[in-house]
Amino acid sequence: MKYSWKIDNFDSEVFGFKVAKVETIDSEDSPEIIDKIVGDLIMDLNKERVGYATYRVKFNDFPIIQALQRSGFVLVDGLISLGINISEVSIAESVGEIREATRSDLDKLKQMTSGLYLKSRVSNDPLISKERADKFYTKWIENSLLGEAADSVLVWEESDKILGYLTLQKKGQIPLVGVAPQARGKGIAKKLIKASLRKFGEWKVEDITIETQMGNIAALRAYQDCGFKVVNSFLTLRWAKDD
Ligand SMILES: CC(C)(COP(=O)(O)OP(=O)(O)OC[C@H]1O[C@@H](n2cnc3c(N)ncnc32)[C@H](O)[C@@H]1OP(=O)(O)O)[C@@H](O)C(=O)NCCC(=O)NCCS
Predict the structure, then answer these.
(1) Is any atom of ligand 1 closer than 6 Å to the C-beta of 217?
(2) Cβ neighbours of residue 72 closer than 8 Å, sequence gap 6 or more
(3) Is 72's pLDDT higher than 90?
(4) Residue 46 C-alpha to ligand 1 middle, in angstroms?
């Protein structure tokens, strides 16, 4: 098989149609053969009644990117991946405003998340309504708090108000970081990231990665300031049945 894909249960549930995540496409052949592989993939998706599919490809895999575009895939996102080995940084002191979230924070976290992520593969795609894009993130933070999408959630709280949060996975990933608009630019994201490094240290997890959109300069500055280095870059393209 020259390609592989699987159903993305989370996306399918949130978007209300069958969504696939393409995992691999063989890129070592000529453009004609890659076109044939992508054509076979699309036939397969149609046969299985998939309505929407995404593929994350290395930013410079141009033969695949061009073949996907020739077949109707469109670019919806660009991501920068940054990494850090915590043995290389000094771990900061704990900060009073930061604590681990509990289930009783769910409503506040969902409320804060609504409308927060305005630039992503989901919010950039005109085929996904604003309501669905919003639900994607509010469901994601809910699943994080319930332990399904994260192993811990840290919050920044002032006078009983949650103004920022970050989610951590023991596999060494920080999937979500968010700070309320009125609290931005004060170093809250950086302090949450530094606190997460302490938590990873407790878990004995040394290699941490974090991703953000290429144009998310505030996030990129915050992550680099905490010692993260750029390690990779990807584009996300998507195909939709009736697009
Ligand atoms: C990205 C985000 C988490 C940053 O939170 P924050 O608490 O404001 O971040 P910090 O104050 O710790 O640091 C942000 C850095 O970017 C800078 N910055 C903020 N807005 C900026 C902008 N529009 N352009 C350039 N730099 C910007 C800040 O000055 C700071 O850098 P500096 O210390 O070198 O001056 C916040 O903007 C946010 O929640 N955005 C929406 C959700 C999101 O995009 N999350 C990240 C992707 S998962």
Answers:
(1) yes
(2) 42, 239, 243
(3) yes
(4) 41
